[in-house]
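A reminder from the course coordinator: this example appears on the midterm review sheet, so study it carefully.

Given structure:
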């Protein structure tokens, strides 16, 4: 099966934790990047849930000290915009064959979301072996991923959705988990308050659990 580019796998395997961020204003991108780097976690997933996403990805992707992914990518237009803005890989909440086939044809790293064995089989048929397990806690959490490991050996997952400091260790302890995505480190409240020191502290605290 196809896999992500080696440099993408290396970045995810190294950091193992991806802050998932919905930026309300692209002006917050640069200080957010500074806070993440200062905390020792130079990676981020900027979701296409706000109009600021594309510009924020463009700003952050100029940095050589930050791995930038685009999240909540739902269709080819968003995928093209994210890649043009400099995103290193794309994450989607579901498994859309049209989107995946476009990404593979254009040598774009895509990590589609799966929630059931049927989703996983579809992603495998399309040639993928690194998948986003979403929404992780709703779909059974670590217990579900342990069960999935039996019929689907060799697959790697990035669980996202409901990951917190309380359950992060349970996910990262699983052999089939490559990394985890979480939004608790960079909340909307902290962004609205421009509390980047608070963000840095939350990221530092999260890293101490790993």
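Designed residues:
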């Amino acid at each position: 099966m196809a896999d992500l580019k080696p440099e993408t796998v290396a970045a995810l395997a190294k950091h193992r934790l991806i802050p998932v961020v919905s930026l309300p204003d692209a002006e917050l991108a640069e200080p957010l990047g500074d806070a993440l780097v200062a905390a020792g976690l130079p990676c981020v997933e900027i979701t296409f849930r706000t109009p600021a996403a594309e510009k924020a990805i463009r700003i952050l992707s100029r940095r050589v000290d930050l791995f930038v992914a685009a999240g909540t990518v739902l269709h080819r237009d968003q995928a093209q915009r994210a890649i043009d803005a400099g995103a290193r890989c794309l994450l989607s909440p579901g498994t859309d064959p049209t989107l995946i086939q476009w990404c593979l044809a254009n040598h774009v790293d895509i990590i589609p979301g799966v929630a059931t064995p049927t989703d996983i089989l579809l992603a495998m048929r399309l040639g993928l072996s690194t998948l986003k397990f979403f929404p992780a806690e709703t779909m059974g959490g670590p217990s579900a991923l342990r069960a999935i490991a039996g019929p689907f050996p060799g697959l790697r997952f990035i669980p996202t959705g409901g990951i917190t400091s309380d359950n992060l260790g349970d996910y990262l302890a699983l052999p089939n988990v490559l990394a985890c995505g979480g939004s608790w480190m960079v909340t909307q409240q902290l962004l609205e308050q421009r509390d980047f020191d608070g963000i840095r502290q939350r990221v530092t605290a999260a890293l101490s659990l790993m």
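The two ends are 30 Å apart (CA to CA). The chain has a mean pLDDT of 97.
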